[in-house]
DNA sequence: AAGGATAGCACAATCGTTTGCGCAAAACTT
DNA sequence: AAGTTTTGCGCAAACGATTGTGCTATCCTT
């Protein structure tokens, strides 16, 4: 049942042509002056056959797939997973479906996946970019509405909605400094990504004013990276730090793990502050002071922006002015520093 | 660039017919005896034009979309999100893309989404079912290869790969009992779902042997549910428990939150054990003893099983024998009980 | 009763690919 | 030189839907 029945089946069973059936079933009966009688017979038969339109054929014909492509740098990262979940939920509610792809933090893979989205005629794309330059995204955007989320590019007309990572990192760092910490280790994520660069900038600017010791290390938003960097920074005759700023909760976990291995108590021997929202952070030992980002709001704005572009293009209007939004994050104070 | 160029464009530019171009570009040049010369010219021109096949048209014609539908009960639940991530990763590596949908734990929505998958001509479906009966899934399965994961139905020929929830819950409960706890509160998730039922059964069977006090409450795999049930079980003149078995890590968080509100120390005043893997559980206060499920293995088996069915059907062979797998979970002992 | 208006529907092209079949020219046979 | 085989490619149908255009009854008008 289901997929087997096409307009043609209904057409055969009712004696009406495929075109008439199509018009009735897509709600255009009035517009095309189809008789009540025909309308009822056709609707009844479609019901009986459990007719479902073939979205593939529909897409080919109308160039509208009711599908949005969502491209993220890593499905494994809980931060991206959470954000994806939020976006998928919003899209579902709008009757859109989501094709989810993973660029594995690789610019090459990202281009691949974007090409794929185009081949699949997605109606729009939401992307957390992995590339360091916006050229390809801009090309894509000229064909398919595209908005960036979480990460953006320096000079581009692409619309984006991110959180203010500079402000967030600066706020976190100043909080640490206010607590009297004297040497701070920042463990960063993917160095080239805009949020990371902004966080580094915020961190350094905050430090700059006070002139305490610091170091920025690391290269990935992963648990492994957190482990590795803490091990190499705290073991042996290395320089020691009295506080750590983890740029993501995954990094945080790795860092804590290594601290414990080294016999250091996170939050006591070493102050801890982190980026990212995660329900678990409140239940850790100690609960982690952190910079939270309003993800739901960001997701909503991204979707809204995307749909505005889509609507405009469909109506033949010019794109709405590029919207580049930085949402302020929040410092959530707990007991880890 | 990109999407605009079709076989027809390349055909026009090279002077060869659309069919020849198609055969060359889909690697069937040899099979159809296309001359080297034609092949080279066409390939070069396609390259130059940056030709990308239109997957929608391809799907319509070949009935193969290279897309798998993944249906989960809730994108918000980190457990499902993690499992989804794993599956999407595996599929990506196989060159398949994933349409991710959310049934919101509703049988109605699930049917909707499955219909949608059929309309979209997905090549296969992986599903964590929300319905209580398998009828519709079986209907779908007769049209599109489908395997269940994490949850299954009582008597069905559908293939599934789940973890042994009975064994897991029994193991956890026996561990609690071994520790001397005398009254245990089990906070369950969605009552009708098979994993939940199995866990309840494992819990009760374990209890049965020892005859200690117990209660099974709750109705959702959510933080809220955990909060609510602990509040109502521990506040006022209510019966008190000396241990809690949370059927998911989300429930666990809620439970801990309420315990703390009530001035009870999780792991000290009340023993805690949980279901679910989650990197954060090791960093909580105290680290949580839990039943972990081998998700990566489960995902891999599900995908493999799905592809075997897909291969068989494509080759016109009968479906391979239904594969119903229960993977044993692991008890990870920490300090919370 | 002849003419125009309108209602009600079907024809056929189209979206971009794939593929069975067939046809012409070249190459080979005897 | 006539027939046979092979080479190299194009025609056209098909996948399932949408939609501009046009055709035929019926109806109204006078």
Task: Please explain how this structure is put together.
2 copies of one chain form a homodimer. Chain A is α/β, with parallel strands linked by helices. The first copy, chain A, has 12 helices and 12 strands. Chain A has helices at 7-14, 18-25, 36-49, 55-62, 78-93, 107-119, 135-143, 165-178, 194-210, 223-234, 249-261, 295-314; strands at 67-72, 97-102, 124-127, 146-149, 159-163, 183-187, 213-217, 243-246, 271-275, 289-292, 324-327, 330-332. In chain A, strands 2-1-3-4-5-11 form a 6-stranded parallel sheet, sandwiched between helices. In chain A, strands 7-6-8-9-10-12 form a 6-stranded mixed sheet, sandwiched between helices. In chain A, strand 8, helix 11 and strand 9 form a beta-alpha-beta unit. The termini of chain A are far apart. The mean pLDDT of chain A is 94. At the A-B interface, helix 4, helix 5, strand 2, helix 6 and helix 7 of A face helix 4, helix 5, strand 2, helix 6 and helix 7 of B. The structure holds a DNA duplex (30 and 30 nucleotides).
